[in-house]
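Batch manifest, entry 17 of 40.
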Amino acid sequence: MALVAISAAPAAMAGVVVVLWITGTTLNLQSFIGSIMAIGVAMANAILLVTFAEESESRAPDAASAARGAAASRVRPILMTAIA
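Output type: structure tokens
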């Protein structure tokens, strides 16, 4: 569980760097605070996704179907949080 949650942080950092590069924005205090918030949201979503997968693992025949079920049930809330 911890590896999946930790792996969300580099992906969020890469997204922040790409968006800063595309928009031509420098890393200032506002963008730094925004990047910290983006990393926090990504970590929270990863933890929730893993928790849902662990809960559905007892009902699913294998780990892959449990992960697919968790992703299907969490995709809408994760997208709503990311868009907001």
